[in-house]
């Protein structure tokens, strides 16, 4: 069942139940009032006859005659007893009525009155009354035909009004629900009618204030992220194809030249050397892509542990110096850590090693003297590792772009690379909920990395 239909059904049931309860209360009130009014009329009719008999204003025989000649099948029947229970007067001899009265006499004597309803819809009102000759116990029995008729009309009116009102409520609720869900229906139609390649689709954000507008805004932001991801993926695939094609084309060219002509041993060695260099370049690019895939995992899918950053940086230094024997790396503590937690973080050892290897390798390669300096520091929340080198400055307009995939700076001709390293490093640091900042001024380039302090 659709939410729109479900809401229409629920609201119709709620309004219908409230209206029905109101109708029942109204009907019960008027029904009770009708019965009370008839009891009052019975009381007045019986009291008049007691006054007539008690004051001997009229004889019982004349009262009998008047009762018999009164039109109407349901004329109240009045019966009068003295306080001892002796019958003094009855409009019409009715032994059955007298038997009922005997059952009520004690209640009237005790409470001063009694009210009775029988299965035929008749009402009997008994009460005590003081006369000139003493106390009387009087019973008046009758059927309120006019009251029943009025209640029947009231039931018909209330039922008709209820049905008409319910039809109106159902139609109104349905129209209101349709109007309320119209923006959602438009969203669904627009999304369904779009093509998979239509990444420029955006939903109407309306007034940008209500819940539906917030839903549209959230959906549009998600589409923005998806579009950015697809754009980045396309750019990544394009650049990757270019980066792979260059060394592979060089390998193919060298091998084809060797195949087409006779070469000396020295020429073969040169070809092998160039081919190996290009093959290593492809291997390095492949490894970077594998690391990039790892850095794109959800953090819950990666093995995390406590890591001492000073020990990790020593391992990275050894690795970089082994790969490039001519480099020089210096490690300095700006503030002596008071405890182990100030140089410890929680992360994946392999990924952090990849990130700092990229930073350290770049710092050495782009340095004038192949030297870099590593500074350890900390604040209240983060362990801070800053890698400095002295070399060509990175222009201000390029400082944000260096973290884009396959981006090579204006000094790319002097150093080999594939443009993935800093992009990969930024993703790894972000995966560890850290931050990385670049500053380049007065021929000093610094990459400051902040990683959350381990709270074990």
Summarize the model shown.
The chain is 55% helix and 19% strand. The chain has 456 residues and is an alpha+beta fold.
C-alpha geometry: rod-shaped
Query: What's the architecture of the largest domain in CATH terms?
Result: 2-Layer Sandwich
> Please, what is the oligomeric state?
single chain
Helix content bin: 55-70%
Topology summary:
Elements: H1 3-54, H2 60-69, E1 77-82, E2 87-90, H3 95-111, E3 113-117, E4 123-131, E5 134-142, H4 145-180, H5 182-193, H6 211-260, H7 265-295, E6 305-308, H8 309-323, E7 328-333, E8 344-347, H9 349-365, E9 367-378, E10 382-391, H10 421-431, E11 435-441, E12 444-452
Parallel strand pairs: 7-9
Antiparallel strand pairs: 1-2, 1-5, 3-4, 4-5, 6-8, 9-10, 10-12, 11-12
Helix pairs in contact: 1-4, 6-7, 7-10, 8-9, 9-10
Provide structural commentary.
The protein has 456 residues and is α+β, with helices and mostly antiparallel strands. It folds into three domains: 3-150, Dynein light chain 2a, cytoplasmic (Beta-Lactamase, 2-Layer Sandwich); 211-293, Signal transduction histidine kinase, dimerisation/phosphotransfer (DHp) domain (Helix Hairpins), CATH 1.10.287.130; 303-452, Histidine kinase-like ATPase, C-terminal domain (Heat Shock Protein 90, 2-Layer Sandwich). The protein contains ten helices and twelve strands. It has helices at residues 3-54, 60-69, 95-111, 145-180, 182-193, 211-260, 265-295, 309-323, 349-365, 421-431; strands spanning 77-82, 87-90, 113-117, 123-131, 134-142, 305-308, 328-333, 344-347, 367-378, 382-391, 435-441, 444-452. The strands form three sheets. A five-stranded antiparallel β-sheet has the order 2-1-5-4-3, sandwiched between helices. The chain has a five-stranded mixed β-sheet with strand order 7-9-10-12-11, covered by helices on one side. Strands 6-8 form a two-stranded antiparallel ribbon. A hairpin with a 4-residue loop joins strand 1 (77-82) and strand 2. Helix 6 (211-260) runs antiparallel to helix 7 (265-295). The chain is rod-shaped. The relative contact order is 0.07. Residues 178-231 form the HAMP domain. It is a multi-pass membrane protein. GO terms for molecular function: ATP binding; phosphorelay sensor kinase activity. InterPro entries: HAMP_dom, HATPase_C_sf, HATPase_dom, His_kinase_dom, HisK_dim/P_dom, HisK_dim/P_sf, HssS/ArlS-like, Sig_transdc_His_kin-like_C. Keywords: ATP-binding, Cell membrane, Kinase, Membrane, Nucleotide-binding, Phosphoprotein, Transferase, Transmembrane, Transmembrane helix, Two-component regulatory system.
């Amino acid at each position: 069942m659709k939410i729109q239909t479900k809401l229409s059904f629920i609201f119709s049931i709620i309004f219908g139940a409230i209206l029905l309860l109101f109708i029942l209360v109204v009907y019960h009130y008027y029904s009770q009032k009708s019965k009370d009014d008839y009891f009052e009329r019975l009381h007045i009719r019986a009291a008049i006859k007691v006054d007539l008999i008690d004051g001997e204003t009229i004889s019982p025989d004349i009262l009998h005659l008047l009762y018999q000649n009164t039109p109407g099948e349901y004329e109240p029947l009045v019966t009068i007893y003295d306080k001892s229970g002796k019958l003094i007067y009855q409009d019409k001899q009715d032994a059955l009525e007298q038997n009922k009265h005997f059952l009520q006499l004690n209640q009237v004597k005790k409470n001063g009155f009694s009210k009775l309803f029988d299965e035929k819809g008749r009402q009997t009102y008994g009460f005590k009354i003081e006369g000139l000759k003493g106390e009387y116990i009087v019973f008046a029995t009758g059927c309120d035909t006019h009251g029943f008729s009025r209640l029947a009309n009231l039931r018909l009116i209330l039922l008709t009004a209820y049905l008409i009102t319910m039809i109106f409520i159902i139609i109104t609720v349905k129209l209101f629900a349709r109007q309320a869900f119209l923006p959602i229906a438009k969203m669904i139609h627009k999304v369904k009618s779009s093509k998979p390649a239509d990444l420029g689709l955006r939903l109407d954000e309306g007034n940008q204030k209500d819940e539906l507008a917030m839903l549209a805004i959230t959906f549009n932001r998600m589409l923005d992220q998806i579009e950015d991801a697809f754009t980045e993926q396309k750019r990544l695939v394009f650049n990757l194809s270019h980066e792979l094609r260059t060394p592979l084309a060089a390998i193919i060219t060298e091998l084809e030249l060797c195949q087409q002509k006779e070469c000396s041993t020295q020429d073969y060695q040169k070809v092998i050397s160039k081919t190996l260099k290009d093959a290593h370049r492809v291997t390095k690019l492949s490894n970077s892509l594998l690391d990039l895939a790892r850095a794109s995992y959800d953090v819950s899918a990666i093995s995390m542990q406590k890591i001492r950053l000073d020990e990790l940086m020593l391992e990275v230094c050894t690795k970089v110096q082994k790969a490039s024997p001519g480099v020089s790396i210096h490690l300095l503590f700006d503030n002596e850590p008071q405890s182990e937690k100030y140089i410890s973080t929680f992360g994946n050892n392999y990924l952090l090693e990849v990130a700092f290897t990229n930073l350290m390798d770049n710092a050495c390669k782009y340095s004038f003297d192949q030297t870099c300096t590593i500074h350890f520091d900390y604040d209240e929340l983060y362990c801070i590792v800053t890698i400095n080198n002295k070399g060509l400055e990175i222009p201000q307009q390029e400082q944000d772009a260096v973290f884009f995939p396959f981006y090579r700076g204006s000094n790319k001709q002097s150093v080999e690379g594939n443009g993935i390293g800093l992009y990969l490093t930024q993703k790894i640091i972000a995966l560890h909920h850290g931050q990385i900042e670049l500053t380049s001024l007065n021929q000093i380039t610094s990459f400051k990395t902040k990683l959350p302090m381990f709270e074990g």
